[in-house]
Amino acid sequence: MTRDNARCALITGASQGLGRAFAEECAGRGIDLVLVALPGTGLREVARILERAYQVRVEAIETDLAPPEAARTIVAFCRSKELLVDTLINNAGIGFTSRFSESCGEQNEATIQINVGALVRLTQEMLPDLQARRRSWILNVASVGAYFPMPSMPVYSSTKTFVVTFSRLLRSELRRTPVSVSVLCPNGIRTNRKTRDLIEKQGWAGRVTCHYPDEVARAGLCGLFRGAGVIVPGMVNRLLIGASPLVPPALYMWFIARRWGTEQGVQLKSLHFQRNSAPSSSLA
Fold this sequence. Notes:
The protein is α/β, with parallel strands linked by helices. It has helices at 17-28, 43-54, 69-80, 105-132, 154-173, 193-200, 204-209, 213-225, 235-243, 249-260, 265-272, and strands spanning 8-12, 32-37, 58-62, 87-90, 136-141, 179-184, 230-231. It has one domain (8-272): NAD(P)-binding Rossmann-like Domain (Rossmann fold), CATH 3.40.50.720. It has eleven helices and seven strands.
């Protein structure tokens, strides 16, 4: 049975990190959930925990988002279960740290397929159902890195720039429809012990620009439901983006290379390259 007035959010990359934080934040607001992540990531256990803790309906879809048919399968599942999704959170993303000349085609293709291809396909497949609701929302997860070319992450950084541009254009296109589109641009996210240690090594810069998953999820949903176009958690991060046109690119690329560059690449690569989940280094 479905409730006509039930809120329902579809969240990708929902088994861990920022995706799970989104799921918990939505459940705490009484919003039913459709959670998507790869098989073997503990998604069904997450669904059971949230269902018991918050007394909301939670459905889990274990699938790889990369194949073109995945988006159609997810939408068909929602329709078959009479889940009236009104909130789409495109959180799934991957990335890795490497010079482009030293990267491999599989890594680059996977990053593009998940960060761009899967996001666009799922948005397009979900859009007719979202437009049929009285009011609905789309939140795409990008990164502060979308505003700053990131040495040693050329493909990842470029995909996040695409997400920001795509979201802004879609928001404009849908401005007279029930669908509100927002894009979330976090900086570092303290998702696990290793990433917290890497952030702490950055000293003051890491402390003032990086956040915990629940903080980012809360900021994202608050901005989404109040209709903000671009959501940047943290005053310092907002100042950084605002000042970016005034800073010579060579200067901020030097700083980013020191902060996220190849010196940490071996550690970060294993953290980032997880298909269908938010990058663990929190460059989201």
